[in-house]
């Protein structure tokens, strides 16, 4: 089997400038590059935090995120890509930081199988953070 590694996740947003600011201010991503994709009519940016990357698209005439895609249990009822997930050392500390930054916390899970949360970016896209059991 061919070897491969993860390169990036992608999100579509209504405002590229607002998203670049949000991903930087809230999660510590830095702008790697900006470019235009003619075929998609997309003003695009790649942001990076260490080996992690997000590609952010502002597409001319794009539709808003449907309401049912903004809530994790409802989103699972629609086929397709759901979210990306990152590991955190301490979920409770991460949640405190997100609350201090006034981030939209969509869903928190504290179950025997594990702990995690979903936050919404500035466009409502879901991002998961999980604390793996020791």
TrEMBL record:
<dbReference type="Pfam" id="PF00903">
    <property type="entry name" value="Glyoxalase"/>
</dbReference>
<keyword id="KW-0413">Isomerase</keyword>
<protein>
    <submittedName>
        <fullName>Methylmalonyl-CoA/ethylmalonyl-CoA epimerase</fullName>
        <ecNumber>5.1.99.1</ecNumber>
    </submittedName>
</protein>
<dbReference type="InterPro" id="IPR004360">
    <property type="entry name" value="Glyas_Fos-R_dOase_dom"/>
</dbReference>
<keyword id="KW-0479">Metal-binding</keyword>
<dbReference type="InterPro" id="IPR051785">
    <property type="entry name" value="MMCE/EMCE_epimerase"/>
</dbReference>
<dbReference type="InterPro" id="IPR037523">
    <property type="entry name" value="VOC_core"/>
</dbReference>
<dbReference type="GO" id="GO:0046491">
    <property type="term" value="P:L-methylmalonyl-CoA metabolic process"/>
</dbReference>
<dbReference type="GO" id="GO:0046872">
    <property type="term" value="F:metal ion binding"/>
</dbReference>
<dbReference type="InterPro" id="IPR029068">
    <property type="entry name" value="Glyas_Bleomycin-R_OHBP_Dase"/>
</dbReference>
<feature type="domain" description="VOC">
    <location>
        <begin position="5"/>
        <end position="132"/>
    </location>
</feature>
<dbReference type="GO" id="GO:0004493">
    <property type="term" value="F:methylmalonyl-CoA epimerase activity"/>
</dbReference>
């Amino acid at each position: 089997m061919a070897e491969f590694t993860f390169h990036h996740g992608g999100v579509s947003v209504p405002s590229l400038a607002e998203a670049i600011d949000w991903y930087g201010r809230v999660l510590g991503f830095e702008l790697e590059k900006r470019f235009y994709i003619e075929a998609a009519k997309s003003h695009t940016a790649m942001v990076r935090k260490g080996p992690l990357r997000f590609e952010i698209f502002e597409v001319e005439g794009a539709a808003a995120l449907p309401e049912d895609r903004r809530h994790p249990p409802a989103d699972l009822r629609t086929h397709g890509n759901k979210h990306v997930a990152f590991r955190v050392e301490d979920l409770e500390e991460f949640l405190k930081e997100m609350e201090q930054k006034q981030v939209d916390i969509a869903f928190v899970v504290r179950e025997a199988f594990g702990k995690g949360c979903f936050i919404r970016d500035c466009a409502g896209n879901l991002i998961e953070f999980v604390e793996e059991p020791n």
